[in-house]
Design brief:
There is one protein chain. By secondary structure, this protein is mainly alpha-helical. It contains twelve helices and two strands; from the N terminus they run H-H-H-H-E-E-H-H-H-H-H-H-H-H. A two-stranded antiparallel ribbon has the order 1-2. The model has no long low-confidence stretch (mean pLDDT 83).
Length: 246
């Protein structure tokens, strides 16, 4: 499934504008290698055209401020003869979603989830990451996982009403339901598999139920807002009609 460039630019703020190129490089590096300190990111990207450390440092700080990456821990470093510690940075779910538009990342999304410790399946229920990964790998080939990931990404981005940065990360899960409904590739792949193995994942049924409830709540809020707008329009039309009659 093709991911339209305009969809990416509209929904992922970090991947538009003059800093798009360096942001992509940082997200791709952390996706494929896991948490790194700033200097190690710089060393990895220097051969790819990032020539100045302050430029890289600003990109990392900006991506952290916008919620695409976060501090995962600290690593001992040497500054001259002095020992110190430097923070390591890894992808958040926002950063993971953004990184999936990069070909090298979406080819192996499960590897990315394993390497980045902040990517946990606990938005609604705490599900062990290893269990999810093991079951997915048993059910699907790497190529199938890539196809599914691309389809989910496109459906998710289309379902988002605004830029990904304007929505809290804990609310992303509510947009998976309409996103999944838009992609027949997912249904086709699942129909070919023995899905009884999915029942091995503790809390999976509760998670699925939570997904539906979250989407139902989202639709309910949207409907309430529409009703308020409709009432105001009716009042306005009624008032305007009375004025014209006079």
């Amino acid at each position: 499934m093709h991911i339209e460039p305009e969809l990416i630019k509209t929904k992922i703020g970090a991947l538009r504008g003059r800093d798009e190129g360096n942001n992509r490089l940082v997200l791709e590096t952390l996706a494929l290698t896991g948490p790194l300190i700033k200097y190690d990111i710089f060393k990895a990207l220097k051969p790819r055209g990032v020539r100045h450390y302050p430029t890289l440092s600003r990109r990392v700080d900006n991506l952290k401020e916008r919620g695409y990456i976060a501090v995962t821990g600290k690593r001992p470093i040497k500054v001259g003869k002095k020992s110190d510690e430097s923070p390591t940075y890894g992808l958040t779910w926002r950063g993971f979603i953004a990184s999936l538009v990069i070909e090298s990342v979406i080819e192996n999304p499960i590897d990315v989830v394993e390497k980045n410790p902040l990517l946990k399946f606990d938005l609604l229920h705490k599900i062990p990451k290893k269990t999810v990964v093991d079951v997915l790998r048993e059910l699907f080939t790497s190529r199938e996982i890539g196809i599914i990931a691309r389809a989910v990404l496109v459906g998710f981005l289309r379902a988002l009403p605004r830029d990904i940065e304007s929505i809290k990360q804990e609310n992303y899960i509510a947009y998976l339901v309409p996103g999944l409904a838009e992609v027949p590739e997912i249904r086709e792949k699942f129909e070919e598999k023995d899905l009884t193995k999915l029942l091995q994942i503790p809390g999976l049924l509760e998670l699925a139920s939570g997904l539906v409830e979250a989407y139902e709540g989202q639709l309910s809020e949207a409907l309430s807002a529409i009703r308020v707008i409709k009432e105001e329009l009716v009042k306005y039309m009624s008032t305007s009609g009375m004025k014209q009659a006079k």
